[in-house]
Specification:
heterodimer, A: about 425 residues, alpha+beta, 434 Repressor (Amino-terminal Domain), 4 domains, 6 strands, about 55% helix, B: about 120 residues, alpha/beta, Rossmann fold, five-stranded parallel beta sheet, 5 helices, 5 strands, globular
Chain lengths: ~425, ~120
C-alpha cells in the first residue's frame, strides 16, 4: 500500500486520538458516516476540498494527513487501544511499542484489521436484513399471522366454555390463518432458497451500484450547481475503489444521467415548485419544459418524498431501482408485467398513471407514474436507446376517489392465481 | 361505566381475538383498522387505554403515538404497542415516542391481559 493511499488511516488515527466519533466528524464536514468510513479504511481516495475540510475539522495541517510512514500502523494500534479500553497513558505508548516490537505491533494491527473487517461484514449483513423489503415483509407477515393463530388457539384451548357462535368464528379464523401461515412460510422458504443459490450468492454489479447510491442517499450535490458542476469522472474517482469494473461501468451511466438531469432541472428549483402544491409530474414537466421522464427521476431524488424509482430498458430488464418500503422490486426474478413501467414501453410520448397496491405486501398504496425516455441516436437511421421510468410515490390510503390496481412483485410469490399475465405457478397458489 | 379501550389493528383476526379477550375482562373495545384518523378518534373518545399496532395503513403506530403525546391532555394515556417489528431499534423508537409498554407478536393472551391490567391499575375500576 503506498503512503498516499494511507491517508484514510491517518484521518482515523487523528480522529480516534481526539475522541471524535465517526458520525460526528462526518456531520461536521458534510458527508455521510458510511462514506467517511470508506475513506478511513483507505477504500476511497481523498484529496482537494474534502481533505482540507477534514484537516480543518481535526485542526491539523493537511500534510499531517497525507504524510507519515507509520501512521497506518499507529492508527490501527490506536483503534485496538480504544476497542480494548486501554487507559490513555498505555494507549499513548503505541509508537514506542511499535518501535520496540515491530513484528508484534504488525500482528496486533493485523488482528485489529480483521476484527474491523468482520464487524463491517456483520453491519452490512444486518443492514441488508433490515432493508430487504421482501424479507422484512415476509417476516412481518409470518409473525403477524402467528400472533393471530396463537391468540385464537389459546382462546379455543382455554378452560372456559365458549358460546357456539364464538367457537365457530374462531375455528374459521384459525383455519384461514393457519392456511395463510403455511403460505407465508412457503413463500419465505422459496425466497431463502433462492438467496442460497450460488449464482446469486455474491453481489451483482447492479447491487454494488445500488449499495453505493444508497450510501450517498441517491443524492449528488456536486451535480446540482448551475455554475460548474463536478464531472462524472470526479465522482467516479472518489467512488470507484472497491467496485468491480462492471459496477463502475453501470455507475458511469447512472451518474451521467443524474448529471444531465441536474443540469436540466436542479433539485432546489424542483423542491421549491413542489413545496406549495401537490406533486403533478405532467404539470411540472410543462412548467420546467423538460421531458416527463426527467421529472420522474428528479422527483425520486427529493428526500422528503420518500419515493421509489424503477428503470427498465426496451427488453423489460430492470436496470435501476431505488427501493421503497411497501413495494417489492424483485432482485433476481422478473417483475410483475402489470406494472405501468412496462406499459410505458408500448405507449411512447404518454405518461401513464395508476394507483397501485401490491398483492400480499400489506396495504400500502402508491401513485405510479411511468414514461419512456429516448437517448439521442448515435446516427441517422439508427434507433435511439429507449428506457422506461416509473416513479412510485407513497399514497394516502383510504382515498377512495382513485381506483387501485392490484399488481404483484413477481409471479413466484404472487397470490393472484387467475392472473392472465402469469408466467409460472406461484408457491402461494 | 365500562372500561374503554381503543384498539388500532388492521389484522382482523388479531383484532377479533383481542376484542373477545378484553370484552370478557369487562372492557368496551372500539376497533380501528386504519391509522389515518386514529389520533382524532382517540382524542375525541378519551379511552382508558390505547392498543396500537405499528404497521398500519394511513399512519404508522409511531406517528399516532407521537400525535397523542404532543397533546398535553393525553400525555398520561396508557398506550400498549403490539408489533411484529420487535427489533431493538423499533423498541427504542417506541420508547422515545412515549410508549407505555411494547409487546412483540406473537404474544400470549395472558401476557397481553397482564399488561393491560398493569397499565390501567388504579385508573379504572
Amino acid at each position: 500500500m503506498s503512503r498516499d493511499s494511507l491517508t484514510g488511516s491517518r484521518i482515523r488515527e487523528r480522529r480516534v486520538i481526539q475522541g471524535v466519533k465517526q458520525a460526528e466528524l462526518a456531520k461536521r464536514i458534510g458527508i455521510s458516516a458510511s462514506y467517511l468510513n470508506l475513506i478511513e479504511h483507505n477504500r476511497r481516495r481523498i484529496g482537494g476540498k474534502l481533505l482540507l475540510d477534514i484537516a480543518a475539522a481535526l485542526e491539523v495541517e493537511p500534510q499531517a494527513l497525507t504524510e507519515g510512514a507509520e501512521a497506518a500502523l499507529l492508527g490501527v494500534l490506536a483503534e485496538a487501544a480504544v476497542a480494548s479500553q486501554l487507559p490513555p497513558e498505555d494507549a499513548e505508548q503505541a509508537e514506542a511499542f511499535a518501535g520496540r516490537f515491530p513484528s508484534w505491533a504488525e500482528a496486533l494491527a493485523s488482528s485489529q484489521r480483521r476484527v474491523s473487517t468482520l464487524e463491517r461484514t456483520v453491519e452490512t449483513l444486518s443492514d441488508r436484513m433490515a432493508h430487504d423489503p421482501l424479507l422484512a415483509d415476509s417476516m412481518h407477515e409470518l409473525l403477524t399471522t402467528a400472533a393471530a393463530v396463537r391468540s385464537t388457539a389459546e382462546i379455543l384451548a382455554g378452560d372456559e366454555a365458549l358460546e357456539r357462535e364464538w367457537q365457530d368464528r374462531f375455528h374459521a379464523n384459525l383455519d384461514a390463518d393457519s392456511s395463510r401461515l403455511a403460505q407465508s412460510a412457503q413463500a419465505l422458504f422459496g425466497y431463502l432458497e433462492q438467496a442460497k443459490d450460488p449464482a446469486a450468492g455474491g453481489k451483482s454489479p447492479q447491487e454494488e451500484v445500488e449499495t453505493y447510491l444508497a450510501q450517498q442517499g441517491f443524492h449528488f450535490p456536486q451535480f446540482e450547481t448551475r455554475g460548474r458542476p463536478a464531472s462524472v469522472d470526479d465522482i467516479l474517482a472518489l467512488a470507484s475503489e472497491g467496485l468491480t469494473d462492471a459496477a463502475r461501468y453501470i455507475l458511469r451511466g447512472v451518474l451521467g444521467q443524474v448529471r444531465q438531469d441536474a443540469a436540466a432541472l436542479p433539485l432546489a428549483e424542483l423542491e421549491a415548485a413542489i413545496a406549495q402544491e401537490i406533486v403533478d409530474p405532467v404539470k411540472l414537466a410543462r412548467q420546467f419544459g423538460v421531458a416527463p421522464a426527467v421529472i420522474l427521476r428528479r422527483l425520486a431524488a427529493v428526500p422528503e418524498l420518500g419515493a421509489g424509482l424503477v428503470v427498465c430498458d426496451r427488453s423489460g430488464t430492470v436496470i435501476f431501482r431505488k427501493s421503497v418500503d411497501g413495494f417489492s422490486i424483485p432482485r433476481f426474478d422478473s417483475c410483475c408485467p402489470l406494472w405501468p413501467l412496462f406499459g410505458a414501453l408500448g405507449a411512447a410520448h404518454t405518461v401513464l398513471y395508476e394507483r397501485l397496491g401490491q398483492l400480499g405486501r400489506g396495504r400500502m398504496q402508491f401513485d405510479a407514474y411511468a414514461a419512456t425516455d429516448a437517448a439521442i441516436a448515435a446516427n441517422y437511421n439508427v434507433p435511439a436507446p429507449v428506457q422506461a421510468v416509473m416513479l412510485l410515490l407513497p399514497a394516502t390510503v383510504g382515498d377512495t376517489s382513485v381506483r387501485v390496481r392490484e399488481v404483484g412483485a413477481t409471479c413466484r410469490i404472487c397470490p393472484h392465481a387467475a392472473c392472465g399475465a402469469r408466467r409460472e405457478p406461484s408457491v402461494m397458489a | 361505566m365500562s372500561k374503554h379501550v381503543v384498539l388500532v389493528e388492521d389484522e382482523t383476526n388479531i383484532a377479533e381475538a383481542i376484542r373477545f379477550l378484553l370484552g370478557r375482562d369487562g372492557w368496551r373495545v372500539e376497533t380501528l383498522a386504519n391509522g389515518g384518523n386514529a389520533a382524532e378518534v382517540i382524542r375525541a373518545a378519551r379511552p382508558d387505554l390505547v392498543m396500537l399496532d405499528v404497521m398500519l395503513p394511513g399512519k404508522t403506530g409511531f406517528e399516532i403515538l407521537a400525535e397523542l403525546r404532543s397533546d398535553e391532555s393525553l400525555a398520561d394515556l396508557p398506550v400498549l404497542m403490539l408489533t411484529a417489528r420487535g427489533q431493538s431499534r423499533d423498541r427504542e423508537m417506541a420508547i422515545q415516542a412515549g410508549v407505555s409498554r411494547f409487546m412483540t407478536k406473537p404474544f400470549s393472551n395472558e401476557e397481553m391481559l397482564s399488561a393491560v391490567r398493569e397499565l390501567t391499575q388504579g385508573r379504572v375500576s
